[in-house]
Design goal:
single chain, alpha/beta, 10 helices, 16 strands, globular
């Protein structure tokens, strides 16, 4: 094995040009750690927040990336076998220690999930954080049940599209929003029942489509649309605040009694690797392999195109997940 690797380094917050590809020493794993040869990684808004200087607790310079997919290169503790296919995510990756934007990443064994699949690496690389967030939002945040309705606010984001796929597998009626009429067909293709053009005031339209409002709602835009999402939700329904595509995630002078509609519940979800059971990951990948479900990929890039990939992510024009292969 070589002694150095190519990695994307951010010295300090800045524009996409602040991302630099450098040769770094390959990390040496200790007991309880796993060195992963990264084959692909997905891009996430979390990394955009870090690049823009909006994330707390980041130590620079830093290799970004809160997820990675690849094969085990070394595992001193024996938790995994060399060559085993694995994903890793969260746990401080790309913030408190170097993350997945590299040819190798070294992470705690506790945040590594094994799988087996013959799917292409770009497809596999799109899955871990997207699936963990969507699955966790449905199960932990919303406690979604078969036959219920769900509103996905921010439907053409990767998490929005993945949640729609999972919700349809649960037999739910899916409503999803987009601000771009050109993205309507992409949502219908993955099974969305009702696509709503989002002008910021959609609660009345939702209640026309679902009498009394939706049982569940996933908020991926952030606090600017949260009050309207709450108004679109039925009595005793649940809204889960998971995403911040708007880069706004706080409510000033929050007064719960005045803010929350009567009988509507507000939850939140932010997960870790432990929230994605290995059997859920494997089942999802098997379903993709058999053509039962899809992975919503908007674009695939090489490591050398990382600045271009970040430019696309920041523009908000992607419909689905952006993936980098190494």
């Amino acid at each position: 094995m070589a002694e150095t690797m190519r990695a994307v380094v951010l010295d300090a917050p800045g524009p996409p040009d602040a991302l630099h590809i450098r040769d770094l020493p390959i990390p040496v794993p200790e007991a309880g750690q796993v060195l992963i040869r990264v084959k692909a990684f997905g891009l996430n808004r979390s990394e955009l927040h870090t690049r823009l200087g909006l994330a707390d607790g980041v130590i620079f310079p830093r290799v970004l990336g809160i997820e990675a997919t690849g094969v085990v290169a070394e595992c001193p503790g024996g938790e995994f076998e060399p060559g085993q296919q694995v994903v890793t995510l969260m746990g401080g990756m790309g913030r408190t220690f170097d993350g997945g934007y590299a040819e190798y990443t070294c992470v705690p064994a506790a945040q590594v999930i094994p799988f087996h699949s013959d799917l292409p690496w770009d497809v596999l690389g799109a899955v871990p954080e997207m699936l963990q967030t969507s699955y966790g939002s449905l199960t932990v945040g919303l406690d979604a049940k078969r036959g219920q309705s769900i509103l996905i606010r921010g439907g053409t984001s990767s998490i929005g599209m993945c949640t729609a796929v999972l919700a349809k597998q649960r037999g739910m009626t899916v409503l999803a929003t987009t601000r771009n009429p050109d993205k309507t067909e992409a949502l219908h293709r993955i099974g969305v029942d009702h696509v709503i053009l989002d002008d910021g005031d959609i609660a009345a339209r939702v209640r026309e489509l679902v009498d009394g409002g939706v049982h569940t709602a996933l908020e991926l835009i952030g606090t600017p649309t949260l009050p309207d999402t709450l108004r679109a939700t039925a009595f005793h329904g649940v809204v889960c605040f998971t995403g911040m595509l708007s880069n706004q995630w706080t409510v000033e002078n929050f007064y719960p009694i005045g803010y929350l509609p009567r009988g509507v519940r507000l939850a939140a979800y932010g997960g870790e690797a432990g929230d994605l059971p290995p059997e859920v990951l494997q089942s999802f990948l098997d379903a993709v392999a058999h053509g039962i479900t899809t992975v919503p990929i908007s674009g695939t890039f090489t490591l050398d195109e990382i600045r271009q990939a970040h430019t696309v992510m920041e523009s908000g024009t992607a419909t689905g997940k952006l993936v980098v292969t190494t």
